[in-house]
Amino acid sequence: MSFCSKPGCGGVGAAVLGYDYSQRLATLEDPEAHELSPHLYVLCGGCAEKLTPPRGWTVDDLRAKPPLFFEREPSITVLEIDPPASRQQESARREQLFFGTSA
Questions:
Q1: Are 94 and 87 in contact (CB under 8 A)?
Q2: Which of 15, 31, 57, 103 could disulfide-link to 53, CB 3.0 to 4.6 Å?
Q3: 18 CB-contact burial (10 Å; exposed 0-12 / middle 13-18 / buried 19+)
Q4: CA-to-CA distance for 101 and 16, rounded, in angstroms?
């Protein structure tokens, strides 16, 4: 697991940032499972979203986008709960205990 390369941030790495200086291009990609090149920077999701390139540069975001909608509906679990007994039935079942003597 890699952590964000940005100073002061310790977030879990969610994107890889690379620069192409000749084309003035910053590239964001999904992290790979293997070891990263020392010329790449790991960013957490928050830092990757807030990335602003230098003036005159462009950002090429190649990260996979999660789907907005799922193809299948999520499963819904319905719990059947017994209705509570009426208050009159509850009070009839309870016994009142007295401690001490009456004056």
A1: no
A2: 57
A3: middle
A4: 78
